[in-house]
Amino acid sequence: MNFLDANLDVLFAHLDESLASRILHAVWDRLLCVLELMIVPSLGEDPKERKPWDSKRLAFFAKFVEILETYFHADGAGLADEDIHSPSYRQLLHDDRVVRYPKQTLLLTYTQYKEQLMLQNARTVGPTPASAPATITPPTSPFAASPPSVSPVSAGEPRPQRIYVHDLDWILKLLKMRGARDFVDAELRDRLG
Fold first, then answer.
1. What is the pTM of this model?
2. Which end of the chain has fewer CB atoms within 10 angstroms, the N or the C?
3. Which of 52-56, 92-96, 141-145 has the lowest mean pLDDT?
């Protein structure tokens, strides 16, 4: 943190405030992407090398994200709350919550999201953007203490207003980590072919 702090001091001392703020925002967004890859690996990684995190590791991760949020907010002198709570941040909180779900819940969620996506596409003209961020309602408590006992798309859970391919991808990544490699491969082949 000292290295980052020293470099940010130099950045703000020698750049226009608006440019320095844009750079700080870009650093925050990139950091969120790196953090997301820590808990949800890419689809190309070998699942044998990555195992789901245990509750202690997830609790440490949650605390680390809170510390980074406070650091980048800097008691109002850093990023504004709306910049910190960006779509990438909400996606990270959502991923942290959903990574705790068991394989069966993830399979059910994937099927429901896929059906909703197909209905959306049938109602709209033109393709749904594959790289568009998911519209996720942040959970009331961003880091749950234990896995929920219900499907993430049940009535009691926050649910995306609109589903994108990205929503399906993160579920596939988690399923691959949980040993559903054949299912994931079949779904990817189905998308391509």
1. 0.64
2. C
3. 141-145
